[in-house]
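Project standup — Tuesday

K.O.: blocked on the structure for the chain from last sprint. Re-posting the sequence here as requested.
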Amino acid sequence: MVDAVTTASDATSRIGSSSALLSQNFETFLALLTAQLRNQDPLSPVDSNEFTGQLTQMAGVEQQLLTNDLLTAILQGQGGSDLTGATTYIGRDATAVWSAVKATDGEATWSYELAGDAASAKLQVFDASGRVVHEAAAPERGEGLHDFTWTGGQDGQVYTLKVVATNGAGEAVQSQVLVRGRVTGVEMYDGQPFLTIGTSILPLSSVIAVEEARAAVEQSETSPLSALNPMKLFS
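H.V.: unblocked you, prediction finished:
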């Protein structure tokens, strides 16, 4: 069983929040310092060392604001590079831990993986409102990866699949629902790249495997050069 790798996507918002707080503190500090200088006793002015220390603190706050602006710009730039990097998945076959698919021609297709042999395994299909629209015993209960196609869907509607499996002792068997297919597009939502795989649009972070497109592999295997012994190509 392989879990999807998740990444933090709120760094920019956190930096923005801290920048707003620093900016507010900076303005308050500057107002207090100005008031102090305006209302100081002419016969007992502010000590020069103390005044220098206050200016140093103010400069430090200003430097932190500039640093946060720079970090925000870097993160925004990385958002563009994330999209560019995600486009390299187009045309490849990918597997993602994802359970939502859109029905086409009345069919919705998933894969499910069992961590061990199951004595009992049930598949449940839910519609967009969370209502169970199909429930039946899983066609395959052995350890490993299995495909499942449900033919009772309405075109354009999104459905999700859930697997409930137990072993002979009645203990739960770990399972996960997968979407597998060719990556045909890439989009950005809230700064995060999403891939189009079959009829699903899913976050790149949910992808657990990518391989060369099967058609390209088969073409390579049937190439005249592939029939030659690679040890003799340069002999």
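K.O.: great, moving the ticket to review. Residues 3-9, 222-235 have pLDDT under 50 and may be disordered. The two ends are 44 Å apart (CA to CA).
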